[in-house]
Write a structure and sequence with these properties.
Blueprint (H helix, E strand, L loop, with lengths): L18 H12 L2 E4 L6 H16 L2 E5 L3 H14 L7 E4 L5 H10 L2 E4 L1 H9 L8 E7 L9 H12 L5 E5 L6 H10 L4 E4 L14 E8 L3 H23 L12 H15 L5 H25 L2 H16 L5 H8 L1 H12 L5 H16 L5 E4 L3 H12 L6 E4 L13 H13 L4 E4 L14 E4 L6 H8 L8 E8 L3 H26 L1 H6 L5 H7 L3 H5 L11 E5 L6 H8 L3 E5 L6 E2 L4 E7 H10 L1 H12 L2 E7 L11 H15 L2 E5 L2 H18 L15 H10 L6 H11 L2 H6 L2 H5 L6 H12 L5
Parallel strand pairs: 1-6, 1-7, 2-4, 2-5, 3-4, 5-6, 8-13, 9-11, 9-12, 10-11, 12-13, 14-15, 17-18, 18-19
Antiparallel strand pairs: 14-16, 16-17
Helix pairs in contact: 1-2, 5-6, 8-10, 8-13, 9-10, 10-12, 11-12, 11-15, 17-18, 22-26, 27-28
Length: 758
Amino acid sequence: MSEHIKHPLVKPNTVEQRLYQLDLAGKALSAPTLVVLPTGLGKTIVALLVIASRLQKTGGKALILSPTKPLVEQHAAFLRSTLNIPEDEILTFTGAVAPDKREELWKKGKVIISTPQVIENDILTKRISLEDVTHITFDEAHRAVGNYAYTYIAERYFEDAKKPHCLAITASPGSSDEKISEVCTNLYIRSVAIKTETDPDVTPYIHKKEVEWNHVILPSEMRELKDLLEKVLEDRFQKLTELGYSIQYGKKASKMDLLGLQKKLQGQIREMAEPAVYSALSILAEVMKVSHAVEIVETQGIEALKKYTARLENEATSRTGSKASKRLSDDLYMRQLYKRLEECTTEHPKLAVVKDIVSKELNGKPDSRVIVFTNYRDTSEMVTNALSEIKDIRPVKFVGQSSKFKDKGLTQKQQVEIIEKFKAGEYNVLVATSVAEEGLDIPATDLVVFYEPVPSEIRSIQRKGRTGRKHEGRVVVLVTKGTRDEAYYWSCAHKEKRMQSNMQQWQENMSELNRANNENDKTDIASEFRSEEEQQTGLSDFSDEEVTVILDQREIRSTVARSLEKLGFNIVVKTLEVGDYIVSDRVAIERKSTEDFVNSLLDRHIFRQISDLAGAYEKPILIIEGEGLFTTRMVNPNAIHGMLASLSLDFGVSILHTRDAEDTASLIGILAKREQIDEKRSTSVHGKKSSMMLSQQQEYIVSSISNIGPNAAKNLLDHFGTVENVMKAELDELKEVKNIGPKTAGKMREILSSKYKN
């Protein structure tokens, strides 16, 4: 009979005692630690032991951060069932809890489980303080890179908390030294503790996991489709060569090669490039779209390719579609491809293999649970539909939240409901994209199928970790011979080996820090990972006086707010009708990324925003943030220059450019300091968002139809008189309108008359 953990803050007989978990928890208590433990071996239990120990010895609060709402709910349920703490003191914070309510709950909570974005926002808006938090757990710690919220929270925590301590947990931190180093630096990690499936204290809990590689051959009919696409690629690569931009390996160039050329071309544009550079970028955009289509043919299937080409066609006919998509739509070989696709009756052999493997598994073990992983949503739907045709197979598609053309995502509530039904056996096959790879409490599965290999060692490890938890498991990876499937397989295998080697090296190199046991010296920990320059940067560079920046509540999601707060500015968040940032009674700022700015050129929305800004504030400012202003959507540079001239001359707005969010924050800070300290002006919010006139609202409704721009909308309304008449117009009537051709008229009728399918 297994022994259980005995601790005053752990409920009796709820947590099995495992020596490797106790060992990891002991190491983690000595210093801020990164714990690396394979999926299914109880990383959450290690966190529980550390939390219980910290709360008993130091008091205060414990904070557990997890990337998604389902994970937050999952951890909360576990901690309520195991921690010997009143349940009303174990709280969950997500966006579903109102900010004012969170502020109130924070005061009485002992253990708070939250998404990181919520905590980041509450710190920025001063609703909460981390001063009395004595422990933070960073779940799925490999996410702590770049501008992810973990990075900011860790920095503030080690600055503000009286007795800081953290535990970072992950199954796979990454294969490169750079990635591991960034995670450790961002989370102030001073110790690394690793357990693998081969460690003696772990092996008793490991169940056999067979990994099989099933190779298939691409059918001749699909090779013909691939040949058509490769002819398009050959033509585009030839054009790039003629422009002086040849690329190594030609049609076999990797995505990394293509992105490298794109970066080079964008760099040349910033240096007042020749027209050839713009042409090369546009051609390269075509190459990337076609290259993706080749990958779908090789590794996914006909149905997935049909859906992708439908999106390309939709983009080509859309009024905001790129020139690249429009040229591809008219390409002879692409037209042949579309024709062949309509006639194609062959499906990718992987589909038949998946049906056979899953059928045999469920016939042999009717109570089995199976996960089929696919890289793309289109494939997940195709596989789900195919499996649903087989008796006793009850599949369900499991995808992320975002939605796009003819592809609706799942809400987090729907995701949780699906997992519960999968556990209960209502569904026995989960056909999932990457959303099911990380963290979710998916029950032990008997079989995991990779529809294709993945080049990421993190994703591969997490997929495999979905089986072999409570009993023996099986992993089957499908590989199409002679395609990028094989390249991804070898790449991933190499990265997994390198990760194991690197992690062992990191554990050895950081052992001295682990023994140092300076967990209570927050100054040493915080300053150890920041350069002297970073430690000296702040509002003190400007003045000892408090400087306030008012920002719109939507801007709290940007890293500009975080950067302003780090610089020492007083952040006030409000719902602003006009502008994004207010720095005085006369200066307000509208911030646009380069992509947003170019998109607003196409929908004309920015003119109303700037008109409102100029009408409400004496000195309106537009900040355009980021690079690629002239390459984001391949819009004619003259159109962008014309827009900038109009905004400056017609509205009197000052237009400023910044490199990134940090650069924007620095600029806003300088403007705020100048206004409030040098000019002695106070901040003041004023101005109302103007309402569109009736005619503008009518034009807006009509122009929302695919391929209908502002001018076409006016022509339609002039011709038919009302929006209602436009919507009712027949095909022949639409073709009578100025500049409305048969193709546009047909698209309108298709949209207006087709039955809605959710």
